[in-house]
Structure formats: C-alpha cells, structure tokens
Amino acid sequence: MICLWEMSLFFHRKLIRSQYLSMKRKYEGKLPSPMFMFEHVSFLEALTLKHWAKVWSTYSLMDPSYSELNSFGFAIDCGNAFTAIIPSILLALSCTWDIMPAKTMGLVGIISNYQMLYGTVLYFFSYVINERWKGRPGLALVIASNGVWIAGPLLSMYACYIMLSTNSYAIVREGPSISL
Questions:
Q1: Residue 179, pLDDT score
Q2: Which of 23, 26, 71, 77 is deepest in the core (most CB within 10 A)?
C-alpha cells in the first residue's frame, strides 16, 4: 500500500503543494483533528490515488519537504513508489505461494528492504540536520512513523535472511520457531 501512497505523491505533487499551503494557513502551526487517516471517506474515494495525496499534504505540515519537489524526502519516496512495487508484491505473494525459490526471494527481500531502510535513514538525517521540526507540530509523529520504516525493513531483512539461508518460506508462513 505504501507504494501506492508514494505514487500519489508523484502523480499529485501539484495538488499536494496546494493542499499543504491551504492547510498551513488554516491550521496555523497545528495539526488537523482528526488526522487524515481518521477522516470519513467513501470506499470508492479510498480507491483513488488523488485521495491518498492528502497523506502527503498533511505530513507536509510536519515536514514541508514532501510538498517541495527539490527535496530529498520527495525524491526518495517518489523513487520508492516505482522501484519497490514489484519486490513488495512478490514478497507479499510469497507469504502464501511458491512463486520462486525461497533463497531467491530472500535475496530480493534483503535488497528491497535495505533500500527502504537506507532511504528512511537518509530522509531522517535530512530532517534532523535541516532542523525541519523547528516551528512545526508533530515531532513525535515524525519520529514514530520513521521508526516504523526502520524497524519494519530490519525485521523483514531478518526474515529474508532466514529464507535465504534455509531456502524455506517457513519463517513467513509459520513464524519463527522458538524453543524454550
């Protein structure tokens, strides 16, 4: 799903900039309540990339780099949209079906998740070094959401390493074996 959100960032970049500027004036240094993810939305609207552009315009209240086309945050997430979609789909499908040898899928997963981890670390470094939190709300939310994008790829890289070393999908289908 995140790849689709990232595609909305690319395809609706002008809308995101416009929504961000409008929300910035409206909320004057605060975050909207309820936050975007908790707003009522119709099923059909939820299926559009245009709807998900609001994720980025809302996040831009905490870090405007997502509404600035020349920023690293914008570039890395637009790039991820198109480079991570195929490995993400393959990884999701491999949790149920043997679409390729587990060893191969493990390698694909390690590479893809490393890319996500690396991009997140560089983005967060850019956020911190450029002091993008100053004068903006939501520092805890930025830290928490980026923490997910550090922990998630690390856990997935671990599972993919197990797939690679055992040539088995058991780690994603049965879970880790823990002996007490």
A1: 64
A2: 77
